[in-house]
Amino acid sequence: MQKKWNNLSGKPLSSSDWLHEHHNAKLTERIEFIKKLLKNFRPKIIVDLGCGIGLWLEIIKDYVDKDCQLIGIDSDIDAINKAKKKSKKWNNNITFLQLDFIKDSKNIPTADLYLAFNILSYVKNENIFIENIRNKLNYNGKLVIRQYDGAAIRFGPMEHRLRINIENVLFNSIHNSQLFKHYNLDKAYLSLENSNFNHKIIQFELFQKTSPYSKEFLKYYQNTIKWTINYLSENMSKELQDWYNTYLENNNNSYFYEVDLVSILTR
Ligand SMILES: C[S@@+](CC[C@H](N)C(=O)[O-])C[C@H]1O[C@@H](n2cnc3c(N)ncnc32)[C@H](O)[C@@H]1O
Fold it and tell me: What is the pLDDT of residues 58-87, one digit of tens each?
């Protein structure tokens, strides 16, 4: 049985290994995103909701004013401890809080910028969550949301029959999961559209790679396929394992792309 990359509190795709490898695979793109976000916006307080081991804040610390306060929030104590350890060498004013951003929402500090990156998968009611955060924002403050969706990730080349079968089996295995919502982009989109923010930018961002891959990206790609194999029937997992061997072990030319929802909401 492969690992499911759950963190110690049981949240899928949230273990520190997974977050780290995912982050490293997309580091250049993530840095570009933060640079653009903070180019003409100088927040004094930034809160990263579901900060995990503090990887986004590690980027952000290099692009903010010296007096900007950084706060990372996560319910997982192990992630918070790792983030605290990592941030010891940073020169910024930084705090990591172990909080549940749903149950303890009244304890979330007010801020000029909230980040909600790949956390809507763990939120039961997106409308209430978004409205709660809107109420915590200072005047002209922003909530930035990034959200992946299991149906907006594609790897290949692959026979279409196999791709559709894999997608069907994966969907049937996890769409009823009580632990996370792997297919949440449309619900997220509707909640953003229906929210009370004054100004809304809702866009999609393409992340794409073609072989040959950097070792950081290859590791993430291999993990993504191994994670998928976990959920397949025996026959299908064998077929996907053969695909993995052909393209990700024996270096035949291949590609990967993913489309994320990216939204910037201003109060
Ligand atoms: C998939 S990870 C995303 C980490 C990071 N934002 C990123 O994009 O790399 C989701 C994180 O949200 C945290 N999380 C999920 N539900 C939470 C909640 N209700 N309160 C606080 N943290 C939560 C998990 O513990 C995990 O660290």
Answer: 999 999 999 999 999 999 999 999 999 999
